Amino acid sequence: KRANALGLHDMSGNVWEWCFDWYKDDPASNDAAYMQGGIVTDPQGGASGTDRVGRGGSWRNGANGCTVGVRNGFSPDRSYNLLGLRLACLP
User: Fold this and answer.
1) Burial of 54 per CB tally in 10 Å (0-12, 13-18, 19+)
2) From the centroid of its chain, how far is CA 40?
3) How many Cα atoms sit within 13 Å of 50 on the Cβ side?
4) For residue 6, with 0-12 CB atoms within 10 Å meaning exposed, 13-18 middle and 19 or more buried, which class applies?
5) Could you state, in order of their start, the residue ranges of all structural domains in the chain?
6) Which segments carry the region annotation Disordered (predicted)?
7) Distance in angstroms (rounded) separating the CA atoms of residues 22 and 81
């Protein structure tokens, strides 16, 4: 794949990316900003919950399910062969 506008390669699709946010199936909580053409930076999940957010889809999803906007909930008490994490550091 070619690099995206930020110079990054292959940012979605291989495994779901584990996120620290609690999963809350309520996308409407950020809809107002989207409907007004705004951008939601660091959208927050629920204050607590039983599942953590996974983003980006995996090898088990079709092409429509492998985008950075796709999210799902995963129990932190289980292991998954389709869930990973991305390490990041500040320069």
Assistant:
1) buried
2) 14
3) 1
4) exposed
5) 16-83
6) 39-58
7) 20
